[in-house]
Design a protein that fits this description.
- This protein is an alpha/beta fold.
- It is 38% helix and 19% strand.
- The chain folds into 2 domains: 111 residues, Rossmann fold, CATH 3.40.50; 126 residues, Rossmann fold, CATH 3.40.50.10090.
- It contains 9 helices and 11 strands.
- The strands form 2 sheets. It has a 6-stranded mixed beta sheet, sandwiched between helices.
Length: 280
């Protein structure tokens, strides 16, 4: 029976999150506990990459983390942000986040419409003379770089932040019926915090093929994988899984209780029936 679920992400800020609807509908408890955290590189670590920020005329942001750590490192490096610096962002939401650090209306900001890297590249290609810098995490793939190379755009990627395991306290209870992961780093964090982890009856759900692969590679059982054509979101997949699993287990419990009741009744009849006296 699924009653307590650990979601390896921060708690949703909106009360309208589907997680809360699922909790109320199925009487389950969600615990939001990130398995990983993001930390920035020091100025010394960044300098070791031999990257000079003043060499670039445009910055490419694929996440809010990239924005935070770019501006924080720029400040630590005493790099004055030029007013004519251009920003290319994966989505409008990411672009608007730049306002946290600079006056947005005075900047040249461009963004993609779909949130896909492949759709941002054509926009960048319209500005072929720019020298692009792409702040990245220590964990990233080469897709973006390959797409920029194909367009012959001048670009340099630099690591400005990294993901590290978010340690659990030694006395922190781990009494969950289900774990939900969103990245391979989250799976690695579980194994780091609990090197003798035994899955047993604990269900594991993942979002994204890379995360699913990391669970299987670790020798664990994957019970739920999203997205799928039927369930494009993790919450839709969880809702269906919890409903089906809990109904099945409730039905099995009723069968056992019914069987136990019948057995008890049979035993009672056997012990109360009068014995026949063959000598009578």
């Amino acid at each position: 029976m699924i009653k307590k679920i650990l979601v390896s992400q921060p708690k949703p800020s909106s009360e309208k999150s589907p997680y809360f609807d699922i909790a109320a509908r199925h009487q389950v408890e969600f615990v939001f506990r990130p398995f990983i955290k993001v930390e920035g590189l020091s100025a010394k670590e960044f300098r070791a990459q031999k990257i000079t920020l003043s060499d670039f005329t445009a910055i490419v942001f694929t996440s809010r983390h990239a924005i935070d750590h770019f501006f924080q490192l720029a400040k630590e490096l005493r790099f004055a942000i030029p007013e004519d610096l251009k920003y290319f962002c994966i989505t409008e939401q990411v672009a608007l986040y730049i306002q946290k650090y600079v006056q947005y209306r005075k900047r040249k900001v461009f963004f993609g419409e779909t949130g896909k890297i492949a759709d941002l590249v054509p926009i960048m290609a319209k500005h072929k003379t720019e020298r692009y810098f792409v702040p990245q995490s220590d964990v990233h793939n080469q897709e973006f770089s390959n797409l920029l190379d194909a367009r012959k755009l001048h670009h340099v990627e630099g690591v400005m932040y990294r993901t590290v395991p978010n340690d659990f306290a030694t006395d922190e209870p781990f009494d969950y019926d289900m774990l939900v992961f969103f990245s391979p780093s989250g799976v690695q964090s579980l194994l780091k915090n609990f090197p003798t982890f035994e899955q047993g009856k604990i269900a594991i759900a993942t979002f994204g093929p890379a995360t699913a692969k990391s669970v299987r590679d670790a020798g664990m059982r994957l019970d739920l994988e999203a997205p799928t054509p039927q369930y494009p979101s993790i919450t839709a997949a969880l809702n269906a899984y919890i409903e089906e699993t809990n109904k099945h287990e409730a039905d099995e419990l009723k069968k056992k209780e019914s069987s136990a009741t019948k057995k008890a009744a049979t035993n009672k009849r056997t012990t109360t029936e009068p014995k026949t006296d063959n000598n009578g």
